[in-house]
């Protein structure tokens, strides 16, 4: 069980907070590329880590991400004119480029040097896989961009969506890491044949957690009644990224997710689906847009999921009785139901009671808290420098019980990925003790 | 006039507050029975005393009232599966019975004793008169259930409704006890014949207040021009129950009311109408559902009254000029208009100016404050143990001036009710001094 | 740049605050006369300086402005009966006249003197130019009513409107004083002929600021390429009134504006258009009601402008590209866009960066802060006593460079206005230093 102080440390990411500094030391998703489709097009409001920002694509195609308030008298640059490689404030015409340089102050005297002495707050951006990423940390210490597997692929091989999730980011992150709830929250069944609970051998997993260059590897092992083993391996990548295990047997696309704080009570949830071998096909895109899987179907203007707390996530109590563990349609919306109202927008973890299936969550909390404590001492998280270690897929596969999981893991990552499993992996069992013990 | 500190003591009922402990030492209404009509049916969210709860009727017909958050990682049990005498959390399948026992943790190891060591927070319930009552206090010290008059009657003789009232509970309680405002706020008239003010003899009552085993008796006496006396006697029953005087001459049903804090800015208002002699008839039920009397017509999903602050309580200013003191339709909605916006959701009583008609209110405040101070010393309110004293009707009757009110009162209560007027009743005049003096 | 403490001093106007005392020492607009059109008509809720008030026109035609809560037990007098020269509370019938005298307590004993000892909080009002003005300060020290130019005119020569603006009053006041933004925010243009920026000689003005009996005179001078000068003179009149320069060449009506705090996050914006020479004609009234000029088109019930933050001020991004600096229709709505979301409802002025065009704003802040500091010492602002100095028009005119602005100013005010430019005007340049220097 977490202390109340550690719960605050874990969940608060505004300017000046330790965990805010952790997030600001990494490249994080800021918006979808398709939100700023055109050069010189309409600017977009962006909320990130408690900051109000505005994004725009300039005449040269670069995406700028500026503090929303004009440095002059704080009119919102969202109303600004996006023209000739800069955003011009409508109040008095001050104009800024994507890097925050002030290039015009049309009401100041012609010989004024004021504009050379003043800059807008601007954050560097990087577009990859349909997402505009941003770095909000020390401008003199920009880390390399992570080598996400899907950034090596041609257009069409990956597809990114986002949703507004109305809770603290960590509630979603815990769900992404929780390889156990899959057999409850997301279960569909037929009565009376297969019952509302999954078979015993699927419900009671063993956990092995290792620290890795990108964060953690969560290895979940189930001893099947058949004698085989079923492995699910979820990489946690700092600061808040995971790759959800997708069934290899079903040949499903891989799925990356990110939980990015908008503020301490709201977050942006990103999901990227990708295939290494070919473009996503129509059936796969249809499934993504349907909201049946990890992508939510959202309102296109607000990014609020169509199933949400205001409509009780479209729960169907009759369906809950007869064929669905929740009665809520769609995997992502099922997650929202348990995460958005998890004791309110910020879960009081100091009053919870953890079980054996929560070991990955406990380890992740401790990794994140260690990072927050280290930035208070002036040390940035080392994972930010391990860009190549982010090139990963997840794993969900049944195997002969004699095959070591490390072999399965290396094979899954592919021959061209030597960083997939480093020589030395430290077990972090002492981090993962739970209340049930 | 109350001090600012006493006003806070009176109005704050969340966990850990003195007045919260007073409320938690009594049986209080939690929801209507008809909100959980079916065994294994849909759970219901319940807000009570600042706590978030969930109610469900189990396979055996018992009503459970659990803390809404699962003890595990705080998913809301409202989404839970109500199945086989228990509520099962959809996140990881933990299952709890109505008394909070954990009967299943399907993802824990088969030999785990964790579920035997963990309980959900559960409160005992008792159904009576169409209401599910709950006791939120010390589980080792449950008081007897009060002998409300209408709990002795067959089905159909009583009828209960509830409404969400958007103010602190004490503003409503004061109104229920205020036997004077009836001749103003609720007055209908004809112009020019009978004028907008009631006759003088009805407007200016005398007050006599006595402490009784259940709380207080408020005896209001009016000397009529005819030489007769008109009595209205309102019992106040701890912690926040009253029986509104109904005209005996009109043979109206009796009416019980309860003001139950949802939180410090919202309350549940319950009204029970009943007859001792026969089932409520169609005309009486029609009047209840019409919202014309003490029952409000409400939205069936939210229990928000149809006349509310958002629509100015449907006030008709022309009607106000010509035939209604307020122009607001319905007795309960008239009450809402003066109570919900009584200097905001929490009236600043430390800035009011009391008159002679406020003696009952002053005495009630002092009784409640005494109870709040006593629980701070570790003594629970004695009224909780006097269950039989709660079996009361109110009184509103014209009588010869030579008849003592005590005789009228005893007769009204009936021969089988020896506790209706105890031998010793202490007058509490010294509690009831007002600013007008 | 302002300190954080001074920003709070400038923007907080609730009861007991220094700036609240400054506002309470002046006559301020409370509501439009047409909101209380009839004698004995419907009362009106009024929010002013963080206080909740109720206005009503009595049988004699006088407008009362009372604290909304009845002094008895704080029922809202808005529900009251407006009858026979007084407002009667619906809860217990207490009745008050426009000056707060209690004339009836119908439930108190016939010989009670209580009503003679109790008063409602009532503020004096004064109707002028379609506005009900109020004085919320020391009742024993009422200042003379200001001699606004339009109060000397017959009916029909002036027209007043109001709007609810959702930000702190000072953000609007700064906009009214900012004679520079006119050539940016409000600019319409044709492409490619005249470009999106106004000609250089119009964009870069010189400022001269003088202290005057009513507050300040802001003199803005532009040296035109033609050799002429273009002057715009804006009077600032304490506590928050301005007269916007209107083009004399275009023979436009004059325009007075007031920024009146509702609370610290909302304000009432008043605009009065007037002509000295004749009634406003149909074209002028049509322009006022259209929302194209300084008057906003508003919802008639809430006074919320039709273009507002909720609908992105009806911005048309295509129009912004081709013919309008903002793409937002209407001068007032353009102002709202930059003022209502100016770093939120209360601008953090301690983080801004001022330019040379902000001299008037800086001087006004300093004048207001001086007044706030003086009331803390017990000295009321002297401007409140200088009623005759408020009789002013603004000025916006092109002139030969040899003509002194003082001559233009005196001529504009008219022969019957000897107070238009006092003998001694103190320059306040030392108050107006900006960050750009």
UniProtKB/TrEMBL annotation, chains A, B, C:
CDD domains: Rieske_RO_Alpha_PhDO_like. It comes from the Bacteria. It holds the Pfam family LigXa_C. Residues 27-134 form the Rieske domain. The keyword Metal-binding applies. InterPro entries: Cholesterol_7-desaturase (IPR050584), LigXa_C (IPR045623), Rieske_2Fe-2S (IPR017941), Rieske_2Fe-2S_sf (IPR036922). Keywords: 2Fe-2S, Iron, Iron-sulfur, Metal-binding, Oxidoreductase. Transmembrane segments: none annotated. This is Rieske 2Fe-2S domain-containing protein. It comes from Rugosimonospora acidiphila.
């Amino acid at each position: 069980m977490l202390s109340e102080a550690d719960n605050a440390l874990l969940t608060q990411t505004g300017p000046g907070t330790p965990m805010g500094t952790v997030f600001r030391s990494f490249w994080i998703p800021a918006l979808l590329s398709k939100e700023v489709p055109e050069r010189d097009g309409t600017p977009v409001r962006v909320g990130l880590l408690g900051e109000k920002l505005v994004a725009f694509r300039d005449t040269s195609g670069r995406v700028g991400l500026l503090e929303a308030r004009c440095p002059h008298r704080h009119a919102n640059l969202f109303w600004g004119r996006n023209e000739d490689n800069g955003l011009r404030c409508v109040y008095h015409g001050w104009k800024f480029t994507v890097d925050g340089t002030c290039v015009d102050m049309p009401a100041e005297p012609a010989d004024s040097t004021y504009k050379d002495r003043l800059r807008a707050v601007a954050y560097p951006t990087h577009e990859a896989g349909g997402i505009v990423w941003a770095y909000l940390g020390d401008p003199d210490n920009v880390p390399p961009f992570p080598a996400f597997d899907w950034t090596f692929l041609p257009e069409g091989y990956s597809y990114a969506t986002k949703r507004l999730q109305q809770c603290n980011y960590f509630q979603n992150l815990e769900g992404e890491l929780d390889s156990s709830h899959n057999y409850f929250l997301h279960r569909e069944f037929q009565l009376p044949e297969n019952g509302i609970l999954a078979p015993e051998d699927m419900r009671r997993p063993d956990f092995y957690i290792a620290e890795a260059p990108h964060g953690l590897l969560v290895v979940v092992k189930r001893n099947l009644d058949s004698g085989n083993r079923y492995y699910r391996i979820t990489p946690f990548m700092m600061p808040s990224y995971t790759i959800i295990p997708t069934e290899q047997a079903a040949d499903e696309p891989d799925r990356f997710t990110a939980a990015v704080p908008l503020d301490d009570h709201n977050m942006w949830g990103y999901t990227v689906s990708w295939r290494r071998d070919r473009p996503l096909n129509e059936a796969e895109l249809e499934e993504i847009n349907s909201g049946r899987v990890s992508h939510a179907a959202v309102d296109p203007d607000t990014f609020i999921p169509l199933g949400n707390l205001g409509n009780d996530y479209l729960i169907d109590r009759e369906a809950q009785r007869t064929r669905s563990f929740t009665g809520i349609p769609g995997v992502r919306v099922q997650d929202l139901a348990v995460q958005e109202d998890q004791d309110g927008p910020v879960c009081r973890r100091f009053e919870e009671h953890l079980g054996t299936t929560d070991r990955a969550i406990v380890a992740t909390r401790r990794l994140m808290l260690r990072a927050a404590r280290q930035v208070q001492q002036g040390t940035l998280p080392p994972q930010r420098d391990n860009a190549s270690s982010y090139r990963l897929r997840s794993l969900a596969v049944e195997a002969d019980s004699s095959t070591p999981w490390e072999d399965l893991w290396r094979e899954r990552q592919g021959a061209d990925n030597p960083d997939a499993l480093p020589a030395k992996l430290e077990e972090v069992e002492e981090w993962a003790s739970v209340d049930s013990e």
